[in-house]
Amino acid sequence: MANMSKENKKIIQAIPFMLPSVIGMIVFSLLPIIMATALSMTDWSGLEKFTVHTIPDHFVGLKNYAHLLSHKEFWSTLLHVLYYIVLYIPLGFIFSMVIALILNTEKKFTGIMRVLFYIPVLTSWVAASLIWKWVLSFQYGVINSVIELFGMKGPDWLTNRYWAMPGIVLASVWKDMGYYGLYIFGGLRGIDPTYYEAAKVDGAGKFRTLISVTMPLLSPTLFYCLIMSLINAFQLFPQVLIMTEGGPNGATQVMVERIYTYAFSYFKMGYAAAYSWLLFLIILILTLIQLKAQKAWVHYES
């Protein structure tokens, strides 16, 4: 009993220190989740007063969800996001891996390169998107100017429905590769050098060592980057809003852009909230699938 009372005393003493975090979690996490759930079952516009007492006046049940799932636009935006993911994740991983391998070398200017590669990560998406609107310009863009040096004509990146999403992917990879590259670099630094010594003794070349030694030992880091990049991809928004505004002809309309548009342009807050919950469920399901699938390729033994 004496021990129990002592433990209870410690808990009571800890409460004042925990209280700010608990209050913050309730106010900024739990209450918004509850409100979003309630909003998703209403037709509230956002332009009138919304209280607990007015919920019955706007209550529509699961109508918003039913309309979303039966509407062609929802599935087309989901396909646009999946198309973005198919391009973004492989390219992002390749460039992030290259950056990590470069940073892992003991060259003279490696320290400066670590800073340079991370600068895009620190750049705001507004600035980055404006830069890439100029880079991808059909008439004055740097990329098309380089393509013209080889006697070819570059595409009209941001106003062509077939090239707009690849253009957004290029901007996204440029901005994010330093972030994931730094994580992969940390994973590389954590690999025991004796594994490489053993591979060298066995006569393994650089490529074989990369595939058979580096990649398996790096798999936990790659798995983390995969989950984060997938969540990040589904939250695609600022670059779309600034670079294409969802165009041309809806070719770059994505889920978060639709949520923003329905909430603040069409004033359908309830519909936007339902859209948000469906996005959450999609991310949750895909994350759970990845957690289940990791057993096949992620190796935590080192």
Number of strands: 0
Alpha-carbon distance between the two ends: 44 Å
> Which range best describes the helical content: under 10%, 10-25%, 25-40%, 40-55%, 55-70% or over 70%?
over 70%
The biggest sheet amounts to: none
Low-confidence stretches: none
What is the H-and-E element order?
Answer: HHHHHHHHHHHHH
Q: Classify the beta-strand content into a percent band.
A: under 5%
Let me know the average pLDDT: 90
The helix count comes to 13
Q: Give the C-alpha Rg.
A: 24 Å
Structural class: mainly alpha
Mind explaining what this structure looks like?
Helices cover about 75% and strands about 0% of the residues. It is built from 13 helices and no strands. It has helices at about 1-40, 55-60, 65-70, 70-105, 110-120, 125-135, 140-150, 165-190, 195-200, 205-235, 240-245, 255-265, 270-295. Helix 4 (about 70-105) packs across helix 8 (about 165-190) and helix 8 crosses helix 10. It starts with a helix and ends in a 9-residue tail after the last helix.
Describe the secondary structure blueprint for this structure.
Blueprint: H1 2-39, H2 55-58, H3 63-70, H4 72-103, H5 110-122, H6 125-135, H7 142-149, H8 164-189, H9 193-201, H10 206-234, H11 238-243, H12 255-264, H13 269-293
What features would you highlight for this structure?
302 residues, mainly alpha, globular
Task: Provide a concise account of the structure shown.
The chain is an all-alpha fold and 302 residues long. Helices cover 73% and strands 0% of the residues. It starts with a helix and ends in a 9-residue tail after the last helix.
